[in-house]
Prior knowledge:
Layout: H1 2-28, H2 58-61, H3 74-100, H4 109-134, H5 139-163, H6 176-211, H7 225-251, H8 257-281, H9 288-310, H10 312-327
Helix pairs in contact: 1-3, 1-5, 1-9, 3-4, 4-5, 5-6, 5-9, 6-7, 6-9, 7-8, 8-9
Amino acid sequence: xxxxYRKFGITTIIAVYLLILVGGIVRSTGSGMGCPDWPKxxxxxxxxxxxxxxxxxxxxxxxxxxxxxxxxxxVHTWIEYINRLLGALIGLFILITAVxxxxxxxxxxxxTLLSILALIGVLIQGWLGAKxxxxxxxxxxxxxxxxxxxVIVGLLIYTVVRSYNGVLKTEKINNIPKVNxxxxxxAGVAFAQLILGTQVRENIDNISKMLGENMxxxxxxxxxxxxxxHRSFSILVLLLHVALIYSIWKxxxxxxxxxxxxxxxxxxxxxxxxxxxxxxxxxxPKPLQPVHMLLASVALGIHILLILxxxxxxxxxxxxxxxxxxxx
Length: 328
């Protein structure tokens, strides 16, 4: 059961990242209000594919906050509906993960408790999703919705790594305090950059409504200070990550797990910067918007992995010793 939990936990983490990508597609395509009600879509469990399936006064019937909704768009409706279906599937995955975590109850209760907490987080996330719709995509609610997804990912990563306690051979790493300092600093800056990115994303949503798709090339010039801060901040992010990789290269096995995570993190960051540059100079191509957000989210997850493996003995060593005493 423990082995199944680990494999299924990893699958669930990947699935949550897929949901983050789909959520980005919903926003980049302007499909957030494709379903104006929740949990149904236009009052149906399977949404319409054509306007003829809706009553003539559907804009009034499904008004949000007293305002008529936009014209029915089947593509937007089904993109949002698929997002909701995937969200429900992820909820099921996390429920199964929580059930499987019971196998660790005698060995490590924290794994079970945190798995249940992740399940509670999904329920809260579903409630937030309903609030996003009922608030007509209020900017603050969208950001909170995104942060909650990252919290769920963080919980899952921690519990799955913890479940490998006593299974994985720990890596030796020198000068841990210094490596930790750079790792936590780069993780904090990366998280701040992600939040700044969500603010820029919200500004883009507002400007797109004002200027329209035909003026897409003018969006960047109208973003204001938040965009320039986000763009300039990426230099600090990149420098700190280079320092982190160098510190790992000096103090850890160059062919080990930690070094591999570090190289992957730097590679993702470089790609993320490239996608950011392309968006800034090529009128924010739609396909790159969700990819850019996904890369930032994955980078944050790898940061968590790095910090956990750098401090594996400190975080889980006592559990190993206790288990040895029990088994001995």
